[in-house]
Amino acid sequence: MTTSPTLNFDTDWSYAPAPETAPVELADAYGLFINGEFTDAKAGKTFGTVNPATEKRLATVAEAGDADVDAAVTAAQTAYDKVWSKMPAADRGKYLFRIARLIQERAREFAVLESMDGGKPIRESRDVDIPLVAAHFFYYAGWADKLDYAFPGPRKPSPVGVCGQVIPWNFPLLMAAWKLAPALACGNTVVLKPAETTPLTALKLAELLRDAELPPGVVNILPGAGATGAAIVNHPGVKKVAFTGSTDVGKAIARSLAKTDKRFTLELGGKAANLVFADAAIDQAVEGIVNGIFFNQGHVCCAGSRLFVEESIHDELIAKLQDRMKTLIVGDPLDKNTDIGAINSRPQLEKIEHYLKLGQEEGAEMWQPETPVPARGFFCKPTLFLNCAQSSSVVQDEIFGPVLAVQTFRTFGEAMTKANNTPYGLSGGVWTDKGAKVFKATSKVRAGVVWANTFNKFDPSSPFGGYKESGVGREGGLHGLKEYCSLN
Ligand code: NAI
Ligand code: MG
């Protein structure tokens, strides 16, 4: 039961904690999901996944080696040849609809587990991640028997074969959905690897796929780390690779696949410019800036991590932003009041802390609110860097944490030049009262997605992907579907 706090300005007033109570069924140990069965790794290797908010181990998970990857690709190839690519497309669609509905039915459990294993606030996993997971399956279920209309031409679209998919830890189940749903809709089969710090919702999804009676081998889920990912990517039986993660690993994958005829799509890093013009609705912009960088602790490839403010409103906007940041609650991911949950892992926290130090050493001015932070677990306060030089590491590098680098501009041209002065090109944001300025800016900012007077809005029908070092190819929408079809 929760009690409403009474306002008393003499005492240290704090919010009433409201921890999540929905139960999650969690086994002590999880196997690899190959050909519809959970099995141990052939080499017997395992690893633990922890709750980053408590540092406690949640479960032990099998780690797939080369022999397991080979078994999974063989199972996927057999399922492809004998069942999935042969099945009437409308029937494939029915499986995807069934998966989508089962996810909706179990949404609460998936949301809680996502927050436990990865550290994101329950409000986000419950209201954003899991509903979007279901939406992706619904969306692509609808396309399964309409591919001829989606891609009209002399040849009917055909599937590609076994797809190898490697996903990151920031949106674990959502990235699984982004990858699985279009692949399956087109008649492909899959070997998917979740990230090593967040394997549990993918393994729960494996249980759900079994309950949905998806034919064995259509989806195989292999937990593991980089070596497992590389083994999947480089397996000769894999015809198409989809990867989301760091730019360094993406480049290494592109190099190794350049020698092959495999298809690949890469969703890599970002350093998005969020541009606020003097004519913008400032309070709305402040909310958008907060959402842009503090959503999911800033572990977001399209995070608005560079804020550009028109000089004449800089002081007013920063004061309002700081006031808003003072209200953000950092803490228990399972508490629905929490705004900023746990940093996903100790190495990621260390990376963020390295940048907090470096940013100051390089001369930018760091500001954090006096928000309390739990003593245990991996946490980081929302952070601003003011007066940043263009050369500062906090402006140049993807930090992947709740850290915002602030710069100013005087003219539209200067704003565009600064926004594009980055090796990345994934996303951007524009805040202005003028429609014409929105169109002008969105055509000049070289990024796959540019939001206007909003940020971090996602929809399965809208393609997502980057320019420059942010990646190759698109996911979502018809563009994402096309990556999984052969049209010649
Ligand atoms: P990472 O790129 O190493 O991990 C992403 C996925 O790739 C994981 O499943 C991992 O096991 C797998 N992987 C690692 N090495 C591989 C290889 N050689 N071949 C195939 N798969 C491989 O990213 P990491 O180390 O977890 O995070 C480091 C930084 O990367 C973050 O601080 C962030 O800046 C960036 N990142 C960006 C993401 C995005 O959504 N664009 C997601 C995760 C990380
Ligand atoms: Mg974990």
Explain the overall architecture.
The protein is of the alpha/beta class. The chain folds into 2 domains: 7-268 and 470-486, Aldehyde Dehydrogenase, Chain A, domain 1; 273-459, Aldehyde Dehydrogenase, Chain A, domain 2 (3-Layer(aba) Sandwich), CATH 3.40.309.10. 39% of the residues lie in helices and 18% in strands. It is built from 16 helices and 22 strands. It has helices at 66-84, 89-105, 107-118, 122-143, 147-150, 172-185, 200-211, 226-234, 247-257, 282-294, 314-326, 346-361, 393-396, 412-420, 435-444, 477-482, and strands spanning 29-30, 32-34, 37-39, 46-51, 56-62, 158-159, 162-166, 189-193, 219-221, 240-244, 263-267, 273-276, 306-310, 365-367, 383-386, 403-409, 424-425, 427-431, 449-452, 467-468, 471-472, 485-486. The strands form 6 sheets. The chain has a 7-stranded mixed beta sheet, sandwiched between helices. It has a 6-stranded mixed beta sheet with strand order 9-8-7-10-11-21, with helices on both faces. Helix 3 crosses helix 4. The chain is globular and about 65 Å long. The chain starts with 28 loop residues before the first strand and ends with a strand.
In short:
The chain is an alpha/beta fold and 488 residues long.
| Gyration radius from CA atoms, angstroms | 23 Å
Structural class: alpha/beta
Low-pLDDT ranges: 1-13
Largest sheet: 7 strands, mixed
| Domains, number | 2
CATH superfamily descriptor of the largest domain: Aldehyde Dehydrogenase, Chain A, domain 1
Spatial order of strands in the largest sheet: 14-15-16-13-12-18-19
Instruction: Work out the number of β strands.
Output: 22
- Overall morphology: globular
Instruction: Give average pLDDT, whole number.
Output: 96
The CATH topology label of the largest domain is: Aldehyde Dehydrogenase, Chain A, domain 1
Specify the helix fraction band: 25-40%
Estimate the strand proportion.
Answer: 15-25%
Number of helices: 16
- The rounded distance between the terminal residues' Cα atoms is 61 Å
Give the names of the bound compounds.
1,4-dihydronicotinamide adenine dinucleotide, magnesium ion
Q: Report the top-level CATH class of the largest domain.
A: Alpha Beta
| CATH architecture verdict of the largest domain | 3-Layer(aba) Sandwich
